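Workshop exercise sheet. Pairs work together: one partner reads the sequence aloud, the other fills in the structure field after running the prediction. Swap roles for the next sheet.
Pair: D.N. / O.F.
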Amino acid sequence: MPDNKGIAKNAGDIYRHIYHNRASSRSKIAADLGISLPTVSHSLELLQEMGLIYNAGEFESTGGRRANMISFVPGARYAIGIDITKSYLVFVLADLDLNLLDNEKLLIPYENADRYYSMISDQIEQMLERNHIAEDRFLGVGISLPVIVDISQNLVTYAEVINLPGNFYEELKRWIRHPFLLFNDANSAGWAELWKREDDNPIVYLSISNSVGGAIVLNKRVYTGSNFRSGEFGHMTIIPHGKRCYCGRYGCLDAYCSALVLSSFTHGDIKEFFSQLKLGENAGYRQIFQQYLHYLAIGINNLRMCFDCDIVLGGNVGALMEDYIMELREITRRLTPFENSADYIKMCSFRTEPSAAGAALYFIDEFVRHF
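Structure field:
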């Protein structure tokens, strides 16, 4: 009688091998995992019957017979990510390769009301329907928010940027019929960034949007801290007794470097601020931005001193900093006694709704790790 547990484990190990290598061959799978070729062949047949893998052609010849290239099917499963902010909502549909197949942004302010939660439910169902996503291929919904959540991912422990009720998860549960969990928006964005990076080196992801946060990425995972509060870079004090922050304290990085510091001059539109800055017709904008870079450099230098790794700029502001990255590096370089350059300041590589994508990524990662 066949060992079903053994078969399942082999199939899972082989699927993860193919997934993480993007493509593989029977012989490479057998060699890397220490599994016999007949066992590999049997498991591959099962995975193909389940619609999880396919024959992607042949590898280039190295002198002998060309091996079949086996790859995973990105559209075998899907997840939805939602980014809930104080003033708008973002919905994305992602496949197993974190390709964003559909996205929608709604300029609808948050409110603790049935009509708001009902609208979220309707948007989820409409996105699934118009993309023809079958029930058995849908993994769940990740929801990112500018809040701190506990380890259970269903309880908000701190919310100042957005006024959520204490029973927020239970309110949503009345309307969302799929599995769903809550995530900190900056941690989600950092995870999406990690997913797209080609190396596994540690990074600090600095998310600069209407609030400032971030994520510490170590050993291919987001470090969340003992209390799920790591990466709250926006509440580092950079100017003692300085500007008042929304948290009630004074001198926080958030008070000096949130997107609102710039977008308040262009009716809340951060892209318009950068457009006007690039035109160079308003000297006031340039002066404001130079001061902004000065405070941002202080925050970045503090992070570099603490973590000694690349600092990746993300969020709404980070995604628009490409034309000014050299200037920011030079300002930051002057603050450190240890280095002659600040090339460790990097632009984010995932710039399309990273918080929503990272929230969806949780369910993708869970599927792959526990298949």
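Discussion prompt: The longest strand covers residues 138-145. What would you look at next?
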